[in-house]
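Ticket 4471: requesting a sanity check on a complex prediction with beta-D-glucopyranose. Repro inputs:
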Amino acid sequence: MLRKLDYIASLGVNTIWLLPFYPSPGRDDGYDISDYRSISPEYGSIEDFSRLVEAAHSRGIRIIIELVVNHTSDEHPWFQRARRAPEGSIERDYYVWSDTTEKFADTRIIFVDSQTSNWSWDPVACAYYWHRFYAHQPDLNFRNPAVVDELLAIMRFWLEKGVDGFRLDAIPHLIERENTSSENLPETHQLLKQIRRVIDTEFPDAVLLAEANLWPDDAREYFGDGDECHMAFHFPLMPRLFMALAKSSSGPIRDIMEVTLSIPSQCQWAIFLRNHDELTLEMVSEEEREFLWDTFAADKRARLNLGIRRRLSPLLDQDRRRIELLHILLLSLPGSPVLYYGDEIGMGDNIALGDRDGVRTPMQWSADENAGFSTATPSALDLPVIVDPHFNYQAINVDQQDGDQHSLLNWIRERLCIRHHYPAFARGGMDFVEVDDHKVVAYVRSLGDQHILCVINLANQPLATSLILSDFEGFVPKELVGGQSFPAVAARPYTLTLQPYAYFWLLLEHRYTC
Ligand code: BGC
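Returned structure tokens:
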């Protein structure tokens, strides 16, 4: 990682979100933690970690790590102790136990493809224990104050090591209650407020980023009144970006943005296209899910739980125009964009691998053995590199794209650079622009005097569209990549022509008249 920091900096990325690196049996790629205060020897040592943090900071890059505390591994000493501890003891109550599987019956199962119950029998404790994910991941019991203390101590431990924040994994599931869905309970929000108070008092620069895969109103609650998480992943937006593209319609984007734009002023959405999990379709209607499955996962092997286990490029049939289009949305809609490693070079996946492994294959750095990812013998790699005809590492890798002016990598770099230059993208307000064609989505991002008009053709056909830009009469649109000026906005609707899946980012410049 130390050797790759310059590459990350060259992208214009200012924060790295590290997936779990803790000691773990590795049955959920590290989301099954057996020790929260150290680093799995496969990845290095605490000293290596400190070096990484220091090197990242010296380049202006922050490090966000995973705080996976909804559950532990069943190999964690807390669980081993709990299952042997007397009923009613503090140690036993680190986890959630029951004599029957009837308790919390209204709580859904998340990993529907592999789990049939949220309860599993423990022969040592002679009781069932609660788990929202895999059976080897017992849920911690946050009604036990000793568990809350442990959580705060873990946070302090890593913040003192210099980390800049946490992704709060599976945060809606922290606390359960009878006759509820056991998600987003007021108790969970109280706990988040308690965590935030500690952060504000002791580590005011740290960031809490919620992983709350929920409907818009519920997802927004993770900001509280500005007193819970600073950021939250925008799960409701993500599938609707794919829907807008598949339906060639601005409707899904407009609808979701209208209900999620207002958040406390010090908070921000983290917007994304793909990540290390399946592309979740939990937060769309059943009909929409079927449509998205049919469109993007016709091959049933690509489906997992209620989602699609594919990377961005294969989802879009390696179509550069649509890959660009989704990035244009990602980089210009309100929120901080989060990129998934490898998507910047259009990496492929391997649906022959189990679970979500297909989207977690080694980064393709070069055409060298193991794609330049490792010097181990290929059979020793955790997951094989991609070798299929369209996405193999000899053809798709950083080395090759670095030197190609027209590569996806350099295209993305340039867009990130532009985005960085115009703070309206990051912190500006957003107003949709009326257009005469629902195949086009248009909006203005504004911060002070800076106004950027974004116009995107979601359809696979060329078209001319008229925009109502009455507030900008007399302004001159300047295209942000090439710097060309377009005709000034007049009193009548403004006409633009767009190629299939084409887009413009236009700075609206005021033309002063004396
Ligand atoms: C992570 C998954 C993981 C799950 C259970 C999620 O939110 O993103 O990768 O399997 O938590 O820990």
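Notes from triage: Residues 28, 31, 68, 133, 169-170, 211, 276-277 surround beta-D-glucopyranose (CB under 6 Å). Leaving this open until the requester confirms.
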